[in-house]
Amino acid sequence: MKRDSRQDASLREAALRALENAYAPYSNFRVGAALRTRSGELITGCNVENSVNGLAMCAETLAVASAVSQGLTEFDEIAIATEDSEPTPPCGACRQVLNEFAPNIKISSYTREGKEATWTLQELLPYAFALNPSRGRV
Ligand code: THU
Q: 58 C-alpha vs ligand 1 centroid, how far in Å?
């Protein structure tokens, strides 16, 4: 599907709405994410932290997991929203998770104040790790 500014706006709004559901009482760094699937659905995620250090789940990874659990595995774009003063790029682990399904995905990041940055995953994760899928199979 061709991208247009209306699609960008709806993806941004979905990420900003997901940000409202972020559960981040430990870091106070709230993140929302919205994926646009090849078939046009918008699937969201937010970060979910835990009393146990190290169990925090990132918004982008949860959006991917939610989409995959609904049978949606092709993604064109992801929007990220935070309350930081500058647009936040996805963490390294989320880049690798995105690469599994969408090595050419476009990534847009937004602040509440309307700042925006965009990258391609190729720019943020050159030389991604990948196993040969036939490895280990008989
Ligand atoms: N976080 C995300 O949700 N996505 C990222 O790409 C970077 C970090 C979350 C994890 C944790 O809850 C908080 O932000 C601070 O690291």
A: 5
